[in-house]
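Aspartate aminotransferase family protein
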Amino acid sequence: MPTPNIKLPNMDHYWVPFTANRQFKAMPRLFKAAKGNYFTTMDDRQILDGTAGLWCVPAGHGREEIAAAVGNQLRTLDYAPAFQTSHPLAFEAAERVAQYMPAGLDRIFFTNSGSESVETALKIALAYHRVCGNPLRNKLIGRERGYHGVNFGGIAVGGIAGNRKAFGNALAGVDHIRHPLDIVNNAFTKGVPEDGGIALANEFEQRIMTLHDPATIASLIVEPMQGSAGVIVPPKNYLKRLREICTKHGILLIFDEVITGFGRLGTRFGADYFDVIPDIITCAKGLTNGVVPMGAVAVKREIYDAFMENSAANAIELPHGYTYSAIPIACAAAIATLDIFANEKLEDRGASLSGRLESAAHSLKGLPMVKDIRNIGLVAGIEFEAIAGKPGAMSFATYLKCYEMGVHVRYTGDIIAVSPPLTIEPHEIDRIFSTIADAIKFVVAAGDAGLDHTRYLKNEQDWAMHQSHQAHINHPILEHLE
C-alpha cells in the first residue's frame, strides 16, 4: 500500500527534459528540499548528492548567503531592461567574473545557461572574423562525443549522436575531431593519461585541415574534460598542442567550461588545470551555485576591441543578447557565490579531496562489469561493459539501486558519473563509492532480473499507481450516449 501521507503533484502537464517521461512518471524521483550535501525526498529520506545537482551546486545546497542576496535584490530591483539600459550590479558581476577568469579573458557577455553561452561563443567567433575582414572563416569544428548544450549550434558542434538525430541537419559548415578516449591503452588510468596527446591533437592539423582550408575555419570548441559523455580525460599535452595549432592558423580556441569551471578540477577552470589559455571560455552551472539560471562568455580583450574598433560608428557591435541577460537576481547570486568561493577557498578544498576520490573510485576496479574508471579533480566516471541489445541497462539499474540506498549519482549511456559538491566530506566520498560498489554487486548477482528497472523504487511506483487510481476516480471518463 502507498504511504498515506505522500501526495504527488499532478504530473500530467510537465514534459520533463532529457528524461524518459513515461518511465519516470511511473516511478518518480522527487526532491522536496535540500541542505548541505543532501536532498530530502517526498518521504523524508536523506539522499547524499553525489552529482552536485546537475554539476551545478559546487558550494552545497541551501546557502543562506546566496538566498539573502537574491531576496534583497528582488525587493530592490527585480528587473531592468537588458537592451539599451542596464543596472550597476551587471557591471559589478562582470568585473567579478573577469577577475575570476584566467588572465586576459576579461570581457564578459552574460547569458542564461550553458547552451546559450555556447551559442553566444560560436556567434562571437563567426562575427569576430567577419568584423576583422575575414568573412570566409565560417566553419566551426567540434569534437566527437562533445556536449555543448542543446541549441542548434551546440548540437552541431557537439558529437553525441542521440542529441542530434531527431532534429534534422542542424548547421552546415561543421566538422569534428576525434575524441581522446583510448580505453585499450589507458583503461583505469588515475588522472591524466601520459601518452598519445600530441599525436591525437596533430590529427586536427593533419586530417581536418586536409579537408578544410584552415583559412576557412573560425573556431575549434572543446571541453577540457568531457563530462556529459562520461568523464573523458584528455592525455598530457593534448590541449597545449591544440592551442599551438589554433594559434598557428588563426583559429579561435573555445573552451566549454560549463562543467569544468568553478572548482570541479581543483582549480578555477580547466584552463588553469591544464595551463592552456583559450580565446573564449563559456561557463554557467556553478556560476550561481545552481540557484538562478545564468551563464557567461569570457573573451580575450582583443576580441572585444576588434568589435569596438571595426564596427560602424553608433552601430550595435554585436546584434545578440537575451531578455534576461544579467538579470539583477542572477547577478546577485553570482556575486554571492564568488564570495563563498573566495572565503572558503573551495577550489583548494576540491583539490585536497581529489586524492580521496581517486582512491575511492579506483577501489571499484575488479568488480564485475566494470570496464574502465576515469577520474580528474573531484569527478569520476565508471564505465560498464556494454550489454548487447540493452544499452545503458546496467548503469540505469545501478543508478536506481544507489538511489534506493540513499545516494544520488548520474548515469549516461553505460557510465556512472560522480561529481559531488566541493563541500563534500571525506567519509561521504567513501560512502558514495561503497554504495556504487554494493549496487553493482546487487545488480550483477540478480542476473537479467537485476536489469529490470521495475524491481527498484517500489514505494515510488506505489505512489504513482495510487495517484493514477485517484485521478481515475475523481475524473472518470465520460461516455457519450447517442
